[in-house]
Specification:
By secondary structure, the chain is an alpha+beta fold. The protein has five helices and six strands.
Length: 154
């Protein structure tokens, strides 16, 4: 009787916890959505802000740095362009930022074929940042960055 009780107790302990769930480990490796973290990723310049402002600072800083990099390039186009593209970034728990994919129209691809490679270079120029945290652990996060492309035919 005592052995049955011990076996039942051991079975209950192992079947009631999620420590052995491969599904949860897989979620952490593939990256959490940016909005699901306790502490957002941040650039060094954002460290002195309180938590709600840190998120805003991060968004403004990443936009500013990529925009600065893109404005250094002189694009020449025949027709005016006014479009928004979405850049999917992965911010690893090491602090490294990597461009995963770019969502844009065929028109943008046709008019600005080098835009993808220029964005990749811009993202590579970004410094390492402090990664996001979830429950006290550094985590990899996914971030979608909308970029407005606005060019005149001047």
């Amino acid at each position: 009787m005592r052995n049955c009780f011990i076996l039942a107790l051991i079975f209950f302990c192992f079947s009631s916890c999620d420590y052995f769930s491969l599904e949860k480990k897989e979620d952490l490796r593939s990256g959490l959505d940016f909005t699901c973290v306790d502490t957002y990723p941040m650039f060094e310049s954002c460290k002195n802000f309180e938590e709600p402002e840190k998120r805003t600072c991060f968004k403004e800083e990443i936009r500013k740095r990529i925009a600065t990099s893109l404005t250094e390039i002189d694009f020449t186009v025949e027709d005016e362009i006014e479009e928004t593209i979405i850049v999917h970034l992965m911010i690893y728990k090491t602090g490294k930022i990597k461009l995963k994919t770019i969502q844009s129209s065929e028109e943008i691809h046709d008019i600005l074929p080098s835009l993808d490679s220029l964005l990749r270079v811009s993202v590579k120029k970004l410094p390492k940042i402090q990664p996001a945290m979830k429950k006290g652990f550094l985590v990899t996060t996914k971030y979608k960055l909308p970029i407005k492309i606005s060019l005149d035919n001047d």
